[in-house]
Amino acid sequence: MEKPRVLVIAEAANPEWVSVPLVGWSLSTALRGVADVHIVTQVRNREAFQRAGEVEGETFTAIDSEAFARPMWKLGEVLRMGQGKGWTMVQAVSALSYPYFERLVWRRFGPDIRAGRYDLVHRVTPLSPTISSPLAGRCARAGVPFVMGPLNGGVPWPRGFDAERRREREWLSYLRGAYKALPGRGTTLRHAAAIIAGSCHTLSEIPARHRGKCVYIPENAVDPARFSQLAAPENDVLRACFVGRMVPYKGPDMLLEAALPLLRAGRMQLEMIGDGPMLAGLKEFAAREGIADAVTFHGWVAHDKVQSVMSGCHLLSFPSVREFGGGVVLEAMALGLVPLIVDYAGPGELVRPDWGLKVPIGSRAEIVAAFRAELGRCAADPAGLAPLAAAARARVEEKFTWARKAGQVREVYDWVLGRAAKPAPFD
């Protein structure tokens, strides 16, 4: 079947960054395996694209929306009151600046879209379902299908973690449902030909009248070139790792408390990868409790170097209580680590008993107790985790490489273009 011609809109796409920009880059470029793709991104990503071998004007176009985007970004940084905090505030400010980006996209590509030079337009980023897309209506009027997604975010803070929410400066999350009334959201959903929901939670928040055009495809995937090693831990003691920012909602303090008896007894070694405001306090806790020799704090580690630390472990021990996508879970599984997570939001959707371990969401004390029990069972027989580890790796290879993800999106393209039936539900 002939490849569709696709204009991919990825305002945030950068191979040298992590989080949303890395998702934007990874999916956009993977789609070249299944479609004839031209990527449109923001000018801040131009040099990274070029270093990755992209050719401006041929494989991508950089749109300079800095006249509006730069002051809005600076405003968001001020309002968030702390590096890495106030994510909902950043999203709210982005919602103000993004339409200007799409206005410039239409000015550049509108004539080509109207002339039928693209079979469809796909907005990959922003991932947030709060940000409307003026292009949706313009594409619909031009007779060109508009696909958006994966959309993800807006996961409610779990009960009992209000203190963590305040420490993260998530003031706007108390008004999290207000985005549904924002101008443009209804029009965007109405004009979209297909909506890719990156999580079950996001899918549940799409109005019922638009649910028929939705397809659930989890947001994250793995680049096998970045995560190519095979975990080969020694089986004398349980070896676990934590990867993420050292902030309250990711639970590094809960992990240390849960693992404390095993660490004291020499039955567990823990690798803590990441930086953040809690790091100094965590180091002090380890020293005070006499477990400094059992815990290694690596601080920030470059993304392409993380696997070298993780591959010496049996387990990813990750008690985060609010993850939208949970990409680190897939990265651990790709290496052959067993994920131990809290059954909530993104990680809870990715992990099943056949290839991982999860504990119920609950209070802080309940999560600590449940993690302690699971870690104790794992420490009793670290070698016994091997079957779960093999199943985790196989699951990623089957469903969660970026090439697999591109194939799943191609099924959506064929559906909206009338070439195939709607894709079967993701399993």
Number of domains: 2
Structural class: alpha/beta
The helix tally amounts to 16
Helix content: 40-55%
Report the CATH topology name of the largest domain.
Answer: Rossmann fold
Strands in their spatial order, largest beta sheet: 3-2-1-4-5-6-7
Cα-atom radius of gyration:
22 Å
Shape: elongated
**String of helices and strands:** EHEHEHHEHEHHEHEEHEHEHEHEHEHHH
Question: What quaternary form is this?
Answer: single chain
Largest sheet: 7 strands, parallel
What is the correct CATH architecture of the largest domain?
3-Layer(aba) Sandwich
Would you identify the regions where 5 or more consecutive residues have pLDDT less than 50?
79-87, 170-175
Strand content: 15-25%
The end-to-end distance, rounded to whole angstroms, is: 25 Å
CATH top level of the largest domain? Alpha Beta
CATH superfamily of the largest domain: Glycogen Phosphorylase B
Number of strands: 13
Give your account of this protein's structure.
With 427 residues, the chain is an alpha/beta fold. It has 2 domains: 233 residues, Rossmann fold (3-Layer(aba) Sandwich), CATH 3.40.50.2000; 162 residues, Glycogen Phosphorylase B (Rossmann fold). 41% of the residues lie in helices and 16% in strands. The strands form 2 sheets. The chain has a 7-stranded parallel sheet, with helices on both faces. It has a 6-stranded parallel sheet with strand order 10-9-8-11-12-13. Helix 10 links the parallel strand 9 and strand 10. The chain is elongated and about 70 Å long.
